[in-house]
Design brief:
The protein is globular. The chain has one domain. Strands 1-3-2 form a three-stranded antiparallel beta sheet, with helices on one face. It starts with 6 loop residues before the first helix and ends in a 9-residue tail after the last helix. By secondary structure, it is mainly alpha-helical. The protein has seven helices and three strands; from the N terminus they run αααβααββαα. Pfam families: KH_NucS_shadow.
Amino acid sequence: MSLDVPAPVLTVAARGEMDDAQFLAVVRDSLPYAWEVVAAAVDDQAPGKAFGEHEVPPPSEQQRGQLLRALASNAIRGALERHFGIVLAFQNCHRVAVFTPAAVDSPIYREFVSPRGQVLNQSPELRDC
């Protein structure tokens, strides 16, 4: 299961009344490591810097799973992007980058998300990450 959803939130969702704030609270509480990684990448995005990133491998498989679930889910990823006002990019099992929405059309963003960028970010120790 990706998220631990409290009964009151399930009730609100069933009535069609759920908003981003409620969903983000569930994400933050259910996937704390993923939340911390995205927040760290946002904090790394200093003025004048092309993008912020987090490149530290997760300390455990459980934390790796949290990160993968957060970035693989359209709903979770979209909510994180709206909350932080960024666009997420992801390579390997742990390299998360954040870009401003305006940077999505930039050469550096296109390079980061390109097949070439993915290949250049590979190493034998990351094969089974």
